[in-house]
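The data layer described in this paper is built around a simple, fixed record for each protein. Because each token names a local backbone shape, the row as a whole describes the fold. We quote a single record here, exactly as it is kept in our systems:

***
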Amino acid sequence: MAAPARQRADAEIQNPSPHRRAIIGSPSNFWLHSTRDGFDLTHPPTPDSAPISPSLRLQTTTTPITIDPQKSALVIIDMQNFFLSEALGRAANGPGHKACDALLKHAIPAARKAGIQVIWLNWGLIDKDISTMPPATLRAFGFESVPASNPSSPNLPPTEKNPTPDSNIKNESADEITKLPSTTTENGKPKHIYKGLGSDMGPITLPDGTTIPGGRLLMRSTWNAALYPPLHTAYEEGLHPDSAYQKPDIWIHKNRMSGLWGPRTPCTEYLEAHGLRTLLFAG
């Protein structure tokens, strides 16, 4: 070690930085920070209140975080058949299945043991959602097109649901269906499943050879919007806690990529009503 660097290191050992504290936020919503203990996200009544107990200390890759399990939730997002099922070509060793394994082996058991609320936040559309969906969200799941010569094509209703996005399809004023040779949408998604939100997926053949109706894409009470089977089992187990210390699992529908996209969503309303201030996201 060079002499100047050694001198600085010796000086730091002899004169360590003093312990410092900070309050981050407003009087109604704040975190505490300590150079010794990391972040405190327990949300006590005031910065000077006695420490919340019991609390849970999480060692992260950067700094420790202390949370109040009773004010915390594990939010599991989009672990549904549409995103995970091998029947739709999802890779069994892909990131979704790795997340599934980590949830079942580690995150869900740890959350329940600590008394942390488990929330399953999933796509679950109704027809009203489709009629008011912004184009940026619709585009992500595929859309339809008709021949450019069709005079009605610029005015195609955004709620019209027909098979195969980005293909020349038939609607009330089109004469014939002409399939494009491409197998992917303009944003690189497989056409055989990205047919547009609310569109009928048609029959689906499961790995065991069973054929079932896939249902309308990401609509409530359909096979494709149901939880992936191993996680569905975990959800059902969570409906009946082993002890009063644990909270029953909760299922919340969402109608955008995020369940927190607006000031008032079913998810934000539930969090506020139950005093849940710290969210641990997975999915």
